[in-house]
Structures
1.
Amino acid sequence: MTKFSLFKCYFKGKPSILVLVLFLSYSLHFGFCQDLMSGTPDSEYDEKALNTHRLDNLNLLLYTFLLILTVVTIWMFKHRRLRFLHETGLAVIYGLVVGAIIRYTGPITEPRVIPVVPALGTHYNHSVPPDVLWLQLSKRVSSKASATYLNNHTFVYTFRGEIDNTSLNEIDQKATFDPEVFFNLLLPPIIFHAAYSLKRKYFFKNLGAIFTFAFIGTTVTAFVTGSLIWGFIQIFPYLAKDFSFLDTLYFGAVISATDPVTILAIFSELHVDVNLYALVFGESVLNDAIAIVLTRAIQSYAEKYNPNHGGFEMVAFFQAVGEFLLIFTSSLILGSTLGIATALLTKFTRIRDFPLLETCLFVLMSYTTFLIAEATDLTGIVAVLFCGMCQAHYTYNNLSDDSRVRTKSFFELLNFLAENFIFSYIGVSMFTFPKHHFDVAFICISFIAVALGRAANIYPLSFLLNFGRKPKISRNFQHVLFFSGMRGAMAFALAIRNTMSKARQTFLTTTSLIVIGSVIFVGGSVTPLLTCFGIPVGVEEDPDHAVLPGTPHRGGDLTEGAIEPSRSSIQSEKSWLARIWGGFDTKYMKPLLTHSKPTLMETLPPCCLPVARMLTTSEQLNQGCGAHGDSDIELCIDDADSVRSSGPRAFASTQPGFQRVYFVNDRKMAVDDEDRHLFYPIVSPETLSCDSLGNKHLPGSSV
Amino acid sequence: MTKFSLFKCYFKGKPSILVLVLFLSYSLHFGFCQDLMSGTPDSEYDEKALNTHRLDNLNLLLYTFLLILTVVTIWMFKHRRLRFLHETGLAVIYGLVVGAIIRYTGPITEPRVIPVVPALGTHYNHSVPPDVLWLQLSKRVSSKASATYLNNHTFVYTFRGEIDNTSLNEIDQKATFDPEVFFNLLLPPIIFHAAYSLKRKYFFKNLGAIFTFAFIGTTVTAFVTGSLIWGFIQIFPYLAKDFSFLDTLYFGAVISATDPVTILAIFSELHVDVNLYALVFGESVLNDAIAIVLTRAIQSYAEKYNPNHGGFEMVAFFQAVGEFLLIFTSSLILGSTLGIATALLTKFTRIRDFPLLETCLFVLMSYTTFLIAEATDLTGIVAVLFCGMCQAHYTYNNLSDDSRVRTKSFFELLNFLAENFIFSYIGVSMFTFPKHHFDVAFICISFIAVALGRAANIYPLSFLLNFGRKPKISRNFQHVLFFSGMRGAMAFALAIRNTMSKARQTFLTTTSLIVIGSVIFVGGSVTPLLTCFGIPVGVEEDPDHAVLPGTPHRGGDLTEGAIEPSRSSIQSEKSWLARIWGGFDTKYMKPLLTHSKPTLMETLPPCCLPVARMLTTSEQLNQGCGAHGDSDIELCIDDADSVRSSGPRAFASTQPGFQRVYFVNDRKMAVDDEDRHLFYPIVSPETLSCDSLGNKHLPGSSV
């Protein structure tokens, strides 16, 4: 059979196909014989698009390369047990090196720039530059023959920023990103991960101290830092004219956001005392939220402030304070509401049969929290923080095993990448970001003021806290708290957000330098500092573990250091706030939002039984032994451990056979909510109340 | 103790602190008494930044909300076993609804626009509009008293696009994203996931057919579609003047990228015949790559084309063809190289001790592939596709258990989110994207031409393939292949990339409509179509399973349908290409790049022993029974299963106790590489060669 007859046989009896083939060959033939190009310069546009695309990719490639370098180096460091530099410090250093290379050697891509003026007869009555320009090129400008296309069209240009020095503009687009990227894409997973992996047990135990440091302490730091800077710069007249008092206060608020990353990574590697860990972590997580709301409040004061009036304005001040409180609580409520909504969705639907969908829902709901908050002028970071806590506390219990692993590993990965990306960016942008403004005097002043501001937070507040606190915060712990106030991603993201004026550009430069300095130098000196202050390392994570039969009693290490957890003081270790909340949580919130026992049918008054029955799932009633027990012990595993133990092994600790020592407080029904939960699968609440004699029991043996 | 004495006691003996406190109170007092505002309108800038931020967040919120809606609805559909609409279809429909609401009811945010003209004395000699404008506002324009700030500054504006109709501009920024987002952020994970979860076993079995459909077929489709459209539009003179032949060819290439998502999700839910699945999947995955390179080649032809010459230019044509081949193979080599680099990194370092770092390295290396390719003017999609295949084939074997779970679940999640995001966006952008250009005639012509173009790919090529192919592609299979050519994310991303000219805007509109039509209507009719064409569903994934003792013989179902897998034809089932590659892979690539046996010490000639020893790890020598066996069976699990079975259970299938039936071809040493690997842990290669009598054995019983 020849090829032709093959085709003939194929087309046999199909005249319509033959017609089509003929039409096709006609089109192909005449199409190619035509003038192939139409009038529009599509291919030039294509090239333009391609160039933009290539530049974008080079930017991304740069940071991906930096991240790979950081990952490989940090692996080598971990492999050789070197601890003098944390991965974020490495990321910054690599960033600085690459930034310098780009700045001084990189090819300069010259954009096609033309200066423009408003068209004749245009009136513009705003005090900020226009958002959009419409450009019409006339013949007199573009005289080239092929450019006739340009003359008939209007092109749109959008606002990008302001330039001081036109010669600097050439590096404008090099290795920089829109600051919105940090706020909308990189910060939310970092904050969410912090909340999702919070050691809630110790967080609740130290609730009072954490809240004091975070709320009062951050405000104090912001005001002290801001005021000191303002005071100092009065010595330098050239500086004083650039910065108003509100400017320095704003800077104080920006720079008071501390970053837990580096120090906590080292803490958890060294197994530092858990209460110290909880204090540092809790404070840093919350103070990001406070700092961001504080900057908002200061901005709002500045907006309401009447410049003609002069001096301090009481009304505007109280409005700003009111706004601060309103924004914070609204964000908190929004975040918790959406967290609770996710818990309800995962509890009352069978979406857990499809873990991928469940995980997506979880991720999307959490991100929505951030977006709703930001879109309604609340603070997304606060919302996502409390949403993360609710997700960890309630939703996590309802998730399928698969989704637990997925969500944890997903956020861990995102957190790691986002964090190291930001630190790389801080390094690179020191050289490439066009809006830097170096001022040695201001930078020196800031370093001093920041340290003093931190001291004004930690030492007086610890002093006051120690009056009402049973396990006192020792002097050495206070020093560690002081040093742990490193600045990081949040301060940088706040500073880079608005770099329009010279004051703000100076703030950005100073913030970058403070972040770099603290990450590299403070981060590197944590281990010697801990030794120097005699902070116990290698402490068991859970003091309760210490009395497990067979394991050596390690509680002793703890007392030497700082906080003395005597058996009799366990009740007072928990703040009254934590105790009230714990009782409410165990009795109403957990039964409503998770599959845990006791059910609402047991905890609600009998009159509410029909409602309670409706809100109790059959899983909840038939719940077996610890199959879906509380998540806290899993979430409590510190970062270094979770790196190794998440995945299949992550569930080992909730296996029914797992035994935990348990302290029951004398006639205290509402015991620590975290413990209680772990306790449930093994001992029923009835048994618990009979047994509460203040002695410790092995649950396995006591039943 | 009064409060005052408390403070006194605190400051006792610390005069330096007292001085500081005094300084601080001075600063606070005088700071607040000063004029708080400096000259720069920072608070107005802040507000401007805040507004941009709010708008960005509303946009993101919209899509997140749509995704949540889609997730919840699709869960309900799955729960009730409704199959008439796939999740992507749902995403599109929700997108359309919301897009319409935004378009017709949403508030219109009026940007501050002013028309501008070039400053006096400016010369501009390019044929494309300038990239950047520098605006200087003079007094005559902004007369407001507070706006003096504007007069002393230069503002930068960047190019955004072209407008035809100025009244349309008001929805310019509503719910739209930079097209770069699709290419740089959303497509790479989708393509990577496709490659990473490819059923490589069946892919290699059908390598010849897949390559034919992908390479030749896509080119045929592109040219036929393009030519037919050009032919048809000659009937409409008003259309003919807007579109050159190269334009329609470009469109043909854009629209020839098919999307496997919807159809494959349904296939795997219904357990459609694996060979059909492999054909559809393999073809769609590869043809995205071909289509994107083809559009590049057509653009390059257009650039080289001399408009003064007219007609077909042979030199430019062959240059374009050469470029096509060069770009494709370079991208392929780049992707494979980076995949292999990752494999080597994970094999020869102990980074697997830190799974988080390992996962990061894996993700970053894979993304780097895309970025390097794009930055060097190659095609990232092709590179990431082959990188994904290498990662699945080699690197996966070296990963720790934890990283396996992490990487799989991470990409699965990203893929799901990215895909549904794109489909939502297609829906919303139908109404909100300002660059749409509806032309009913062109749209109708395109629908017809696209269908004919697809037919011109499948039917003739299947006809030709069936000459050399033993398990023939039956007529019904051909029909399914024809219908499975739905258009999706890739076509849309290509079309939205450049919407400068009217022709391109028409292409975008038409592409969007074709995508929407095919996802909703074809996607909805797959199940009835399969029944109608008598395609067997509920087929065992692995035909070999069918002869496992104890399970019913299901091979019969398969023969009725289409491909007859008779025992004697197994050898010819594999293409010669697959056989050569399989041999090379098993002997050299896998021993070099993974921890699998045989080691290079066994496969390389004795003279290379020192090198071979260097390249063999101790893990490889001490490898036990299947602990880190091949990944393919895990990767082979189809989507529907993996939703349920990934996580801790995902490793069940590689347990040593797991038995698989195995066919050994008559005196064929290089058996199918996928099978062989599964075989390894149980039978050593020596045993295999002794036993190869062409009979089937249960490995467990044969040793």
2.
Amino acid sequence: MWGFGDSPHPPPPPSHPGIINAEKSEFNEDQAACGKLCIRRCEFGAEEEWLTLCPEEFLTGHYWALFDGHGGPAAAILAANTLHSCLRRQLEAVVEGLVATRPPMHLSGRCICPSDPQFVEEKGIKAEDLVIGALESAFQECDEVIGRELEASGQVGGCTALVAVSLQGKLYVANAGDSRAILVRRDEIRPLSSEFTPETERQRIQQLAFLYPELLAGEFTRLEFPRRLKGDDLGQKVLFRDHHMRGWSYKRVDKSDLKYPLIHGQGRQARLLGTLAVSRGLGDHQLRVLDTNIQLKPFLLSVPQVTVLDVDQLELQEDDVVVMATDGLWDVLSNEQVAWLVRSFLPGNQEDPHSLSAGWSSQVLEAGPDADTQHTGEGRRSHSGRAGVLR
Amino acid sequence: MWGFGDSPHPPPPPSHPGIINAEKSEFNEDQAACGKLCIRRCEFGAEEEWLTLCPEEFLTGHYWALFDGHGGPAAAILAANTLHSCLRRQLEAVVEGLVATRPPMHLSGRCICPSDPQFVEEKGIKAEDLVIGALESAFQECDEVIGRELEASGQVGGCTALVAVSLQGKLYVANAGDSRAILVRRDEIRPLSSEFTPETERQRIQQLAFLYPELLAGEFTRLEFPRRLKGDDLGQKVLFRDHHMRGWSYKRVDKSDLKYPLIHGQGRQARLLGTLAVSRGLGDHQLRVLDTNIQLKPFLLSVPQVTVLDVDQLELQEDDVVVMATDGLWDVLSNEQVAWLVRSFLPGNQEDPHSLSAGWSSQVLEAGPDADTQHTGEGRRSHSGRAGVLR
């Protein structure tokens, strides 16, 4: 639990995450991690090699992460054990730039052109851009580690990743997948992330299929229609959209339009290549469409979107709270409902975060059945979900 | 001049555009067009062919457009003569959907599945999405026409395109390039478009070069650095970013990083492949990097971004004004300065739009020299620009 109000730099989080499981699934593929981020200082040595001069920590940050696994827990476990180390390494590699008033063009601090600082200033490059870059690189590095480890151990699977990092008076939220973080204040609910699903990333996914049609192996159509087309639609003019369109138009249906859609279904039922409900995350290097050789990975990105919150400037109060949760929570409770829950529970239960668990779980259970009513006729979906409250 | 206040449907614009030239360049490559958009009704005939049953107009809209030419005026002239016809055709092709409460899944209105209307509703498809789709398709169709016409006549060139369409109580603003439209109200300045330049579209452009490195023919680097690198930077760790990065990181410079950058320069000096200042527009099918075979077109998009303004809901007043102008104006005057000019001039000069021209031109001339002060040492740039005021 992280108190915004008492000091500009939050106290270290507990050694194990304050995580609440909605307890709606027997087997949970989700993982969480949190801890202190100790960044050591390195210096550019005489032989142009990096030498660790002082092994003690130089900068301290805090790290919280949620990983929603699919196809087994292996990727989520690897991510929970690895991502923070990748991030620490990436931050240590640029730490000299992090502590400068403005990152120098050359990490050595050497000025090759007299106007180098001016070029950096004109591009508007700030220390926070190095943290964003470090988070982007860390997600990519962790994805590669997971790919290698899963292959070596003959395991499969993938996971989403939602990470919050507090460093130098700022809170960074990096998200790859359909988890979500919000900041709940007395008079405000501020979203700190966007969800990446086949629906929200439709144009990017369709464009890749347009540029590399061989990725669909002649089995899928990249076009979007209101529903999957069938024989009776042949020759009709039907609503559709392609990769370059935000609007809709009509096209005359031909045989190739009857193929299974690249993105199919609506809302929580939407699937990429009929297989995956998210379009960003870690792992899934071996994932293929059932009974085919069609790979999911080219369409999946491991790059997160990073949001930056200036904690110092926001004048956060004692009862301002960041809520991080996987889709198990957000599928059944709105931001407003979660904020209401947090605001009602916390004042009397500051010392006992687990008391939130009971209310949380019952709300998820209550909301569940209604939220599942879909006209597609597909069966109920379990609401396995994890939520973390940073306060 | 288009009065919002007097009627929910604006009177037809004048037969020639109310366009003001800043008169700063002898030869103007820009073009403008405006007129009534008469959309005829078509019906799905017995032989599944489109037949024009009633040639009279069925829906009426209004159309204003600005085209900022480069490499000669040919593309801008073709766009000014063609785009409105493309748009009319695209709208006529979907007019049955436009006038329905909600566009039907099948243009014929025939329901193949009983739940077809529900699928359309779940996707949230509305009549305005068909207008957005028609604008997107019209830009693409017009781009193809320009490509064919220029090739046939041995001409070259390209242009940006900014289009405003008033239809069924909504104002649609479609933009491909670096022109801009704003709505100026008494207490509000509302941007109606975003600019598309090599800088604003960096990630899309870098990603295409990442997917198809052959497009750069080994002559350019897709990486972004604060400035172009040179021999002295070799072996140093330098700030950079790649297609997947919003943040910055450091990389050790190798020989391939010394190539000319895919996107080079800053602000108004930024160029795509050292050649073009915009990343969207019409034409340029033949444009190549000087003395090479490297084509610009794969990086250029003709697709516009479309903004929708609900004119009826906004309760626009008599003195609310839409300003559309090319970069010649926006390079030297801010939205706030333009709004101030419009608010000061119009009350006393409602009947004489040309009186705005004098003040406008003098402001552009006054602002010019300061706005040109760049440390890059490049020479002064002329401010040829066009502006239109819809009121």
